[in-house]
Design goal:
The protein is of the alpha+beta class and 67 residues long. The chain has one domain: 2-Layer Sandwich (Macrophage Migration Inhibitory Factor), CATH 3.30.429. It is built from two helices and four strands, in the order βαβββα. The strands form two sheets. Strands 1-2 form a two-stranded parallel ribbon. Strands 3-4 form a two-stranded antiparallel sheet. Its EC number is 5.3.2.-. This is Tautomerase. Belongs to the 4-oxalocrotonate tautomerase family. Pfam families: Tautomerase (PF01361).
Length: 67
């Protein structure tokens, strides 16, 4: 039973975008690993941008500096 965990920042992903991620990740496992899509589980975690860091800095600070 494959399990895929996708983590993204909580910047307004639409329901449609989430569905595309779920379908695309599932299809990738079907094509590459020959996994059964009926048994493939996908979870999307939306992480607050204060809890996401890049280059040693909170992502929220990077966004704020751009504005």
């Amino acid at each position: 039973m494959p399990y895929i965990n996708i983590k993204v920042t909580d910047e307004n992903l639409s329901k449609e975008q989430k569905q595309q991620l779920i379908a695309g990740a599932t299809q990738l496992l079907v094509e590459v690993l020959h996994k059964n899509p009926e048994m493939t589980h996908v979870v999307i975690d939306e992480v607050n941008i204060d809890n996401w860091g890049v280059r040693g800095t909170q992502y929220s600070e990077i966004i704020q500096a751009k504005n």
